[in-house]
Amino acid sequence: MERIVFINGVYLEENNAKISIFDRGLLFSDSVYEVTAVIDNKLIDFPAHVLRLKKSLNELKIKNTFDEKYLLEIHRNLLNKNPFSNKEGLIYMQVTRGSTERDFLINNSNIEPNIFAFTQEKILTETIYKDNGLKIITIEDLRWQRKDIKTTQLLFASLAKTEAHEKGADDAWLIDEEKYINEGTSNNAYIIDNDNNIITRNLSNKLLPGITRQTILEVAKKLKLTVNERPFTIDEAISANEAFISSASTLIAPVVKINNNIIGNGKIGPITGILRETYIKISKNQSI
Ligand code: PDD
Question: How confident is the model at residue 130 (pLDDT cuts 50, 70, 90)?
């Protein structure tokens, strides 16, 4: 059965949803997006996703004509029209600057944004990697300097993840010129040191301010765990007790190998386990 997707105010079967070849998202990656997790048929951290979308649109000076109520209605309608078999999955939403004659010069006055969204079935809570963990390699981060904006310029990240798979790993952590870890290809990166401190890079233009990250930091506080928001190196990561990643599409996933070095005992670490369970519980309570 075809999915029902949303595009510019209407709901259509997926094969009937079309966008112009002159869309600036297609021609210039001139567009931003959000991915929201759904657990028990409810949206996780939705207001925070809307806030970040608004920030991304502001940064790129794309017209923002969408309020939270309108966006929530789209998400709810998509969930109703495409029930997830497992009550879990993702909703992807993208806003492009719009369609106009191809020109490097941006002229917002004669252009209206295109907005579309669709559901993706995905098991989020009971995944295999939750116990087995992920293998990570590190790759030099050659993305642009505004990684804090959630744009659809995802080619480098996509190539890096593919390279990781070709090398027998699951994903890559992207490192800066000083060998500090920025983040994963589509997730934030964390280690836990020998004193049980959670370490994750402080927010800057080098990484995306993950919504899952934001909630994890609140959950860690509730659990009385110490979080150090600072850069960490590959060497530190390799000698860490535990490591994990976070994103709307993986929630919290343990990392058990970095560049072929086993982390901890090669299984999900105890703190990562508690953090994951508590994160899911709290997020479900706050979901809408
Ligand atoms: N990716 N860093 C990058 C580069 C990301 O693309 C993502 C999310 C994150 C985590 O952000 P959040 O916790 O808000 O999902 C960090 C989404 C899931 C994607 O591109 O599919």
Answer: confident
DSSP code, position 151: B
| pLDDT recorded at residue 128 | 81
pTM: 0.97
d(CA 225, CA 208): 23
- In this structure, what token pair is assigned to residue 66? 């969408």
Residue nearest to atom 6 of ligand 1 (CA): 186
User: For a pocket test of ligand 1, which of 182, 247, 275 has the largest count of ligand atoms closer than 8 A to its C-beta?
Assistant: 247
Residue 248 Cα to ligand 1 midpoint, Å, equals 7
The verdict on the CB of residue 264 being under 6 Å from ligand 1 is no
Nearest by Cα to 288 from 35, 4, 75? 75
Domains of the chain and any CATH numbers: 4-121 (3.30.470.10), 129-286 (3.20.10.10)
pLDDT tens sequence across 196-217: 999 999 999 999 999 999 999 9
Q: What is residue 132's predicted lDDT score, i.e. its pLDDT?
A: 87
What's residue 83's pLDDT?
A: 95
DSSP readout, 177-234?
TTSBEEEESSSEEEEE-TT--EEEPPPSTTS---HHHHHHHHHHHHTT--EEES--BH
Nearest CA to ligand 1 atom 16: 187
Closest Cα partner for 272 from 212, 231, 216?
216
Q: How far is CA 41 from CA 6, 121, 152, in A?
A: 18, 11, 26
Strand pairing report for 261-262 and 251-258: antiparallel
Q: Tokens for 72?
A: 């929530």
**Any ligand 1 atom below 6 A from CB of 35:** yes
Tokens of 108: 């917002």
74: helix, strand or coil: helix
